[in-house]
Each structure stands twice: as C-alpha cells, then as structure tokens.
Amino acid sequence: MSSTLALWQVAGATLLISIFATASNAEAFTWRACQDGQKRVTCVVDGDTLWYQGTKIRLIGIDAPEVEGKCHRERQLASDATAHLTALLNTGLRRIAFDGEDRYGRALARLWVTDGEIGPAMIAAGLAEEFGTGRPPPWCRR
Question: Mean of the per-residue pLDDT values for the chain?
Fold first, then answer.
C-alpha cells in the first residue's frame, strides 16, 4: 500500500500521520467485524477499537458501548456501534493519526474516512460519547 508518512515529536509522544495516496489504496480490502477464534489483522472489535494491518487501535476521544456490557441495552448498542464503525470504514479509510498508547498497549489514533473523522461521526450517530467526561456511561441508565 502506497502512503505518505510523517513523524513528529509532540509533548514527548511520537505522532505518526499516514495519508493514503489514492482512494484505491485506501479501499484495498473490505472491513468486517472481528470473529472469535480468527487471527485479528484488519477488523473491527467494537465501536471504538479496531485492528489495522496487525496493530490494535483505540480511537481517541470517544467511548463506545462494550460488547460484553452490563445490560442488554449496552450489548445491543455495542453491536450497532460495531456495525456502524465497520460501515464508516468501508466508505474508504483516508488517514490515521497515531498518538501514543493506552494502558492496555493499544495504539491511540484518530481516523478519517471519505466523509470526515470517525470519532465525531460515531458520537453524532448516538453510538459513542465523548471520552473522559467523568460521568458513568449512559448505556444502562434508566
């Protein structure tokens, strides 16, 4: 896959930005939800986590419902969020901006598709909320 790469040091963290050269390069495969028992190379885990070419990525700035959530509503929303993130990625991944790792060793990144940044699109769809609000997630509230 041909792409342009740039590295910067930002506040002690390495920031890697990858901009895909052409739409055909960005759409070289079809995104699918990750399957149990299958090697995870490029697939969607849930509404805020995915694998891309063997790197596990956690989207910066959003929190999505958990697949193994605390209530039925959270688990259903997690399924919807996974499907929505998969659909967004299938419109054409255009850019990834990496910014460090989280405490679980996942790469932290922002991703852009044909229509814009994924995080805000997930929030606008009601399938994620802003990360770090300090409030409990709303998925199981009554």
Answer: 84
Residue 121 belongs to a domain with what CATH number? Answer: 2.40.50.90
pTM of the model as a whole: 0.80
110-137 per-position pLDDT tens digit = 999 999 999 999 999 999 999 988 888 8
3-state secondary structure of 9: strand
Domain count, the chain: 1
Count of H-run helices and E-run strands, the chain: 3, 10
> Which structural domain range is residue 112 located in?
9-20+37-127
Positive or negative CA dihedral for 67, 84, 105, 13?
negative
Is residue 111 a contact partner of residue 95, using CB atoms and an 8 Å limit? Answer: yes
